[in-house]
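Course assignment 3, question 2. Fill in each field.
Student: A.L.
Task: Predict the tertiary structure for the chain below.
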Amino acid sequence: MKPLITRKKTDETVVTVVNAVLSVVNGESNTSRDSEKTTASTFEDVPEGGFAGWATVLGAFLIQFCGFGYTASFGVFQDFYTQVYITNESSSAISWIGGINAFMTITGGVVAGKFFDKGYFYHLMIGGAILESFCLFMLSLTKPNQFYQVFLSQGVGAGLGAGMMYVPSMAVVSHYFRKRRALAMTIVASGSSLGSIIHPIMLNNLLGPLGFAKAARANAGLVSGLLLIACASMRTRLPPSPAPIGFREALVKFSKDRAYVCATAGMMIFSIGYYYPLFYIQLDASLHGINPSLVFYSLVILNGSSIVGRLTPGFVAHRFGVANMLTFGMVGCSAVIFGMIGLGRGEAGYVVVAILYGYCAGTYISLISPLFSSFAHNQAEIGARIGIGFAFSGVSALIGGPIDGALATSEFIWWRPALFSGLVTFIGFCFMVVMIQILRRRSSQKIEEKA
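Answer field:
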């Protein structure tokens, strides 16, 4: 393969560096140390923004709005389906719709990340946008008490479409940012928070007056328009890797990175309990006879606070560290979930839980991609690192909601799922503490080697 030079020739030194880098990518290097040096040279000229960079951030922001923002709004559907639309199924069964949607959205990153590394970014974006839009319109055609119709359209179809876009839209931001990557990615991640505010407000105000079909079509129209803008805004900057890392090779290589393994395991366990407030806080408030206005806006309050939580790390992560702030968010979530055991005694408790959990969850979500990206040894690994990490978390997202519903039973005994979710999120936090210790030890060893 002949070296590809996308910039105009300026002098022989630049040409030599680029050729050396491409020869390393093609497997012509003799040592991994030389490979790391030359790979780093390729990305020294990261623009840290520019029109194309910030337009890509905007597009990725909208992808998160329509993807995970929609997934995080499932609490509205959980409440509506349980009490109105799918009354012939238990809350545990209904939560499988939200669970499979989250699973497909997150776990789709395994395949999508691999295709992103191969250069199929635009195919993933356009294909995913068309699929999600189509399935959300199909949701409006489903009939009451027809669980399988809703499950296939909203759970499987819309989740698969969002999953095709989720990880690539985060990974492409790294083409334009390096030093300011945490800031850019937290802005992108805040898109899902804004989405999880707008979707509940829209749905709660339309489901009653217009009915399910018209409300679902209106929501699908909003998503379709925003996805069109997103696809038109995003652009890749770097060429695809000539030799992207394979899935098996990635698993073998990444499994030797103890810090990455601890992070992946911790987030996987944590995600089992993470979705409990998102899926059940509105239903919990409704069944406890809380003011209907507060019930409708419980998710809005939670996700509004999440925006603040997602944006905060972008400004302070460079001081406190991505890993430290993410771990702080996890232990905060665990503490708030334990606090949900006492809910049901007044409106103030729901407001406090929504604000605190939203902030902590926002801090956690916004830093997942930056953390996984930080483990990558070169640009070609970013998609795989993020995709595999999200995949394991996606499995937890699939089972967490149904477990919570089964623990609550048809009598809705809320302390059981709250206790369970609090415990698993705390265990996930413990894994992250171990990861931080490994990273600190690794950093100390590097300092000693340099000395």
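Instructor remarks: The longest helix spans residues 415-450. The domain at 46-233+244-450 is CATH 1.20.1250.20 (Growth Hormone; Chain: A;).
Grade: pending
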